[in-house]
Amino acid sequence: PGPLKRWRRHLRTRPRLRRAVTVAAGVAAVALVAAVVLLVRPATPPASLAHVMALLEEGDRKRHDDAPTPATLQEASRLFAAAREELAHVPPRPCFVALQRYTYWRQGELAYFLGARTHDPAVIEQARGYWRDARAGSQPPWDAASGADPLWPVYGRIARLGLHHPFQAQGMASGLLATYASPVTNLELSLRQYGEARLVHDAIGGDYGPDGPSPPERRRDLADILLDLADARVTYGEALGDMAQLDEAVADGRTAALADSARSIDGRSYLAHARARAHAVRAALRWEAGDRRGAADDADSAWAYLDQSLELRTGTAGRSYWKLRRDRAVLDLLGAAMAGPGGAAKESVAAALAELDAGAAALRPDRDDFELAVTDLERGSAWTEMGALAPQGAGFARADSLLAAAETVLTGERFPVQAAELAWRRGRLARLRWAATGDAAQRAAAGQSLARAATLVPAAEWPVLHRRLQSETAALAAVR
Questions:
Q1: How wide is the angle at C-alpha 90 spanned by C-alphas 129 and 109, nearest 5°?
Q2: Would you state the pLDDT for residue 8?
Q3: How many CB atoms lie within 10 A of CB 72?
Q4: pLDDT tens-digit profile of 411-467?
Q5: Where are the alpha helices (DSSP H) in 135-242?
Q6: What is the residue-averaged pLDDT of the chain?
Q7: Which of 212, 227, 229, 233 is closest to 263 using CA atoms?
Q8: Whole-prediction pTM value?
Q9: Which residues contact 469 (CB under 8 A, 6 or more apart)?
């Protein structure tokens, strides 16, 4: 036999030696693999301020230049988190507090964009948390003396970040959360945070660093706070049915317009839209309260601002264009109610449907399922009113199918606020069908829908809805 066969025979007769050789061979194989991995894998570079700056710049590039897909937003957030983590291993400088604050600010932005895009309250709550971490009691040092280099690409962006910005951003997050749940609680928090932002901004001397924004930019920051405050106050006043809040919102919109007259085209459009909303909601509340003249005056003002806003906004604006068209449709439906039964009311309802179609055309079915479902809800409401004006037509049937389509997305588990409104609309549709046809099944369906709507959002969180539910329930009981 050859030497290899003799060696194997030798090992078979000596088990201890065989086990030792096997272990030694395994250790050698592991050592060989580890050596190869170390040779192939690039070494992790030691923490350095230059690498931190590279991470920040790449994160900013993704945030501003890349398509805002969920993957891009998440990758940019990862870069800012990595920059902050690496910064902890670099010899400290006083300016590092400002750098850390900047990473939290950017991560808050990215989480807000992602949560708004996907309609995910949990991600929006993360944004509010990042912005809470970005808040500071005083402006952290950010100049050459603190170790900051004016040649850094992020230098001017950090200098532009005022103390009020995280407060204002938290107000935005709270306001957006009110869209999905607990409207009154979240809006009260939003208003408080906007109020804090204004107080901090008014202490103008300490709000920015020495290389901060110019005086016109500071005035624009104040105007933005006032605009956000006005918009949140409109939504709050609408949820409560509180005219005093809406009066303040109208005044805030006027102040925001005076605070900054050099807005961009988009900025002027958003300002006009916010002012329109204040007048439109006030018109609806005045109409419900029996103030016909006041409602008409506010509706006229709302249309003037809505037309201004539409002149400056196109379908390429996507969801913001849809929101504008939707608000125009809501005002058309109010116009139908104010016109009373007849041809003018039908024309207003038809105009509302056309506005909703125009807004939906700006949406993308692959990512705007929530907005399209809300559009179906609004279309269903419009066709309900058309059915009430012409009971023998197809209005009620169209409304029923549209509201059913909306229900597949606007579920009580995921979107309780919209589900509550949808149940109220279903109750109103069934009540009007019962009044027109005498079908007892419609009467029962109306009662069930109205009762369900009352359970989805507590009365303290949406007083106006519950008042409308009470009104519908009373109207249902009055039908014989």
A1: 25
A2: 60
A3: 17
A4: 999 999 999 999 999 999 999 999 998 899 999 999 999 999 999 999 999 999 999
A5: 155-160, 164-177, 183-202, 204-207, 215-240
A6: 90
A7: 227
A8: 0.87
A9: 424, 427, 450, 453, 454
